[in-house]
Design goal:
There is one protein chain. With 252 residues, the protein is of the alpha/beta class. It has ten helices and eleven strands. It has a six-stranded parallel sheet, with helices on both faces. 39% of the residues are buried. The structure holds ligand BV8 and zinc ion. Residues 137, 139-140, 142, 157, 159-160, 162 line the site of zinc ion. Ligand BV8 binds next to helix 2 and strand 10.
């Protein structure tokens, strides 16, 4: 259940957040599934983490794929099909506008695999959990961008005929090294860190919030309810990111 938004408190907090964000020349953002909720994409814990009765942590794993690749692919075919019908929302666009304002000083780290930040025009994006429009061969590791087009039930590599898998980071898998390094660097060197629409329970991505604080950044969170990070942030903007982010950028 979301907290009813207290307009006065939110207004006050938006002014405080704008004070922290306005002077920042280097800004990093971490987004999670919540920023895509208003585009119509389900979040992970919103549906209490269940998909057709399976816990996400049980389907999005290499073991599940080894045991039942067709079941795991059904999960991703469904999510890819959803992507063909959704658009970025004002929250995604507000982050693209913020990047326009900051140029090279802006880095967007996303846990999302939906590609909506690209669709909204964001440029400097670090996809720390991969992307479901890309497919990776489990044999020769060749990666191809398949957009959101429908794929065969069990895609096989055109080169080596091995099973292909979504190019995402599953539970128990390491994050892409170079991308992770860039994310850590951007978060450590930023003056202001925005945390948007994440429950902040999945590591190591959630660890970026601690990192920002130790790096001395001001931390602003946007969420419809308190998250595991809320106790550590300087300003918590309690409201939907599709409304709050445009309001914040407007105040700059
Ligand atoms: C690794 C890609 C080791 C796939 C994903 C026990 C304790 C601590 C850690 C662990 C543990 N057991 C295992 C671990 C490690 C594990 C982990 O953290 N597990 C968690 C569940 C405890 N992590 C891993 O396994 C990582 N790998 O550790 O590898 C290693 C190291 C070296 C070498 C080899 C191995 C890999 C983690 C990545 C997993 N892949 N996604 C796919 O998408 O199918 S994670 C998946 O959940 C998403 O990518 C997303 O990033 C992540 C977290 O979800 P959120 O984005 O936060 O979304 P959620 O639904 O949770 O929350 C939404 C939020 O939005 C809510 O707060 C809600 O209030 C808010 N909201 C809703 N609407 C709005 C809104 N906010 C604003 N506006 C709105 N309108
Ligand atoms: Zn191959």
């Amino acid at each position: 259940m979301h907290h009813p938004v207290d307009a006065n408190a939110l207004n006050e907090a938006l002014d405080q957040a704008a004070e922290l964000l306005r002077p920042a020349r280097k800004v990093a953002v971490l987004t999670g599934a919540g920023i895509s909720a208003e585009s119509g994409l389900a979040t992970f814990r919103g549906s209490n983490g269940l998909w057709e009765g399976h816990r996400i942590e049980e389907v999005a794993t290499p073991e599940a794929f080894r045991r039942d690749p067709v079941l795991v692919w059904r999960f991703y075919h469904l999510r890819r099909a959803n992507l063909a019908t959704v658009q970025p929302n004002p929250g995604h666009h507000a982050l693209a506008a913020l990047e326009q304002r900051l140029g090279a000083g802006f880095t967007l780290v996303t846990q999302n695999v939906d590609g909506l930040h690209q669709a909204a025009g964001s440029k400097n994006i670090l996809e720390v959990h991969g992307a479901i429009r890309r497919v990776k061969c489990s044999g020769c590791l060749r990666v191809t961008d398949r957009g959101v087009a429908a794929l065969p039930e069990m895609p096989r590599c055109a080169e080596c005929d091995a099973l292909e898998r979504p190019d995402v980071v599953w539970f128990g898998e390491a994050l892409p090294e170079a991308i992770w390094e860039q994310a850590v660097k951007a978060v450590l060197s930023c003056e202001c860190f925005l945390v948007v629409g994440t429950s902040a329970v999945v590591y190591p991505a959630a660890g970026l919030i601690d990192l920002a604080r130790t790096g001395g950044s001001a931390v602003i969170e946007v969420n419809v309810e308190r998250s595991a990070a809320s106790a550590q942030v300087d300003v918590l903007l309690l409201g939907p990111s599709g409304t709050v982010l445009p309001e914040l950028v407007k105040r700059l």
